[in-house]
Amino acid sequence: MSHSEPVTIYYLEMTAPEQLCGKPKPEGLDVIEAELKEFRFNRYLYQLVGEPWQWTDKLQLPDAEWQRYAERDALRTWVAYHRGTIAGYFELEQQADGDVQIAYFGLAPKFVGRGFGGYLLTQALQSAWQWGNTRRVRVHTCTLDHPGALNNYRARGMQVYRTEQE
């Protein structure tokens, strides 16, 4: 897709944990929270997972800004490992209004197309609902993202509530 084409941004939400249509755990895939916060790890995950999708906006940020972003109490990070190798990750961000935002979500390039995304998203949504008094889980994606992203969000039970053209 060339950058001359307009980009569509999709905003999705889930308003009750019962709406989750979970995917079972694939063999050898483990999702673990990175409980000790280390901004360099978040920066590495952002780079690893985001590279094919031009996630570049944050790569130029100085260490202090990365640290402020990644080491807050309102941000939690989970990493998927397949046989000891990082297969993907997600970050959850707790908002003041009872919303939890899936801030970043994705698979490492080697692991795209292996059926891991549905389970990783299931884990993201379950973790969001288990965090405090969550009343809504949100995410946004766009047409520059992996073509399967929007379908994965919808298949897990999320609904599009707004679209925008950029």
Automatic annotation (TrEMBL):
All copies of domain N-acetyltransferase, residue ranges: 31-166
Molecular function per GO: acyltransferase activity, transferring groups other than amino-acyl groups
The keyword Zinc-finger belongs to this UniProt entry's keyword annotation: no
A family per Pfam: Acetyltransf_1
InterPro entries: Acyl_CoA_acyltransferase, GNAT_dom
Keywords: Transferase
SUPFAM superfamilies in alphabetical order: Acyl-CoA N-acyltransferases (Nat)
Descriptive protein name: Acetyltransferase (GNAT) domain-containing protein
Taxonomic classification: Bacteria, Pseudomonadati, Pseudomonadota, Gammaproteobacteria, Cellvibrionales
